[in-house]
Amino acid sequence: MNKEFSAPRGTLDILPKDTPRWQEMEQKARKILNLYGYKEIRTPFYEESDLFARSLGQTSDVVQKQMLYVASLHKEEDLNSRIHLALRPEGTASVVRAYIEHSLHKQELVSKLYYIGPMFRGERPQKGRLRQFHQIGVEAMGPNTSDPYLDAEVITLSLHILNALGPKGFVVKLNSMGSMEDKENLAKCIKEKLRTKQAELCEDCKQRYLRNVFRILDCKNKECQTVVDHLSLDHSFLSPQSQIYFTKVKKALDDLKVNYQVVPKLVRGLDYYTHTVFEITHALLGSQDALGAGGRYNHLVSELGGPQVDAVGFALGLERVLLVLSETIKVALPPLEVFIVAQDQECLERAFTLAYQLRQKGLTCDLNYQLGSLKSQMRLANKSNAQFVLIIGEAERKTDQVALKDMASGQQEQIGLDRILQVLKERL
Ligand code: HAM
Predict the structure, then answer these.
(1) CA-nearest residue, atom 16 of ligand 1
(2) Mean pLDDT, all residues of the chain
């Protein structure tokens, strides 16, 4: 028996009936990104796996459990060592790698970069959680660009895009993790508070307690969540400078009347963040409730071997945006302008040439290659939703004419072949 193939678990085919919706989302986002001065960057879909381990953190769930390795190849310069490649689980690490590799910091004061494309994580698939999903992401980076206004701008940009895409009812959760030093203090503080609770944690979190205590805060295990629910955190671990920074971010958002909730337990699942972190959640999404997320990461560029450069960014998950959008919002397929119907083989020859000529002149045009009765051909023409149908029967072919049918009014008239382009252009 022949094996039937299906899309790999956790991936989705986006069929032609759905692509207009995707294209519309992308076009709207690009327009808005342009308003804020962002330029598109396209990086490879795979990178050295070490890049992700060093960026997202060796102890992050993404690196520990979700990396999709694609190959392990011999290094050209040293055949004894191997290079491990993995599909990109997110965009930030790749953008930072490209920023350093091409010395973008020498070319502009601040690089405002955006990307739209697939990301890959080997997670257990469930509602809103895929192994291949799509993000629209931005990264704004440059030396001495750590400014609360830029953080606020990035947050408002993410909301501007989301509002344009359509979902309503999302919530912005905001927090500050402070500087590297503050983060260490926060880790110590959480460790201290959880010291007597270790036995109640899952096996993973017992390890996390030793290696990266922040990750306990986003554990999905029920017992761990109960422990975390009872944990009380505030911002006393922040240095006075970090407090001021965070206050300025909030003030900038208040000035723009952006609604947000300060959530001291929001620490994000990736290790590179410092200072501002945020998540945009939606109740309809269930346990995978983040439509998007981001924050500041002032040390990643230097940690990956680049200069001291500050950076902030976010990424929105497009499948999740579509999940919360009401199914009633349908985007119509772009209409077909002309459909050509040919009565027999000789007429088809003429139809084929005419279709080529009309397309060369910029008209959307289609025709059917399977000849049949005129009635069945007209049924297909109707189904095509074309604005105009051109009928070439024996009589038309002999007189160098076509019958032009306006599908909205039902009116039909004979037009000379030499005038058809001009007539169509006038009426379309
Ligand atoms: P993240 O929180 O890992 O952050 O992902 C951002 C968004 O991508 C999530 O809020 C969610 O909407 C979507 N997403 C993540 N994983 C999945 C999945 N398995 N299935 C479907 N959607 C998913 C980042 O990726 C950071 N790089 C964001 C960032 C940019 N921070 C600074 N700059």
Answers:
(1) 129
(2) 94
Query: Ligand 1 centroid to 133 CA: how many Å?
Result: 9
Whether ligand 1 lies within 6 angstroms of the CB of 289 is answered as no
360, exposed or middle or buried, with CB in 10 Å at 0-12, 13-18, 19+? Answer: exposed
DSSP 116: E
> What local confidence, expressed as pLDDT, does residue 331 receive?
65
> How far apart are the C-alpha atoms of 147 and 164, rounded to whole Å?
26
* Cβ contact 89:121 at 8 Å: yes
CB contact at 8 A, 126 and 133 = no
C-alpha distances out from residue 408 to 381, 382, 386, 389, 419, Å: 13, 11, 9, 11, 21
Is residue 315 in contact with ligand 1, taking CB distance under 6 Å?
yes
Tens digit of pLDDT for each residue in 46-84?
Answer: 999 999 999 999 989 999 999 999 988 888 877 888 999
Q: Are 291 and 280 in contact (CB under 8 A)?
A: yes
Q: 51: burial class by Cβ within 10 Å (0-12, 13-18, 19+)? A: middle
What is the Å distance from ligand 1's center to 411 Cα?
Answer: 53
Q: Is the dihedral of CA 325, 327, 328, 329 positive or negative?
A: positive
pTM for this prediction: 0.92
Q: Is 313 in the pocket of ligand 1 (CB under 6 A)?
A: yes
- CA–centroid distance, residue 146 to ligand 1 (Å): 22
Maximum Cα–Cα distance for the chain, whole Å? 94
**Segments of the chain scoring below 70 in pLDDT:** 1, 326-332
Full DSSP string of 230-241: T----STTS-HH
Is the CB of residue 122 less than 8 Å from the CB of residue 68?
yes
Q: Using an 8 Å Cβ cutoff, are 173 and 260 in contact?
A: yes
**263 burial via Cβ count (<10 Å: 0-12, 13-18, 19+):** middle
